[in-house]
Specification:
single chain; about 110 residues; mainly beta; about 55% strand; globular
């Protein structure tokens, strides 16, 4: 969007991003990626779970847009913002169904 060669702005319509089923009832959309971070949107159907333990080599964070995510000992409802340091792991699931927006921070 920036024609001057300076910092650029990227935008996309999330509805136009092809969904990818990563497990039964878990659908991921990969969002814009830069050298420093990558974004994603994940929808959990009621009763679904991420297919394996997610081990973080980088910092990761997500915002629960709707529904409720159970992650480790925590239950995170809509409006929750959850941050994982590099070196942590988790396996989110949802009883009710949920949508989360996440960002993984890439360390140079």
């Amino acid at each position: 969007m920036n024609r001057s060669g300076g910092p650029r702005v990227q935008a996309l319509d999330v509805a136009q991003v092809a969904p990818r089923e990563v497990a039964p009832g878990v659908v991921s959309r990969r969002l814009t990626r830069t050298d420093h971070a990558r974004g994603w949107l994940i929808d959990f159907a009621p009763g679904s779970e991420w297919p394996e333990v997610d081990v973080h080599t980088e910092e990761e964070r997500y915002y629960v847009i709707s529904g409720e995510i159970i992650d480790g000992d925590g239950v995170f409802g809509a409006g929750s913002y959850v941050v994982f340091d590099a070196g942590t792991s988790h396996r989110p699931r949802s009883v009710t169904g949920a949508r989360m927006l996440g960002v993984s921070i890439r360390v140079p």
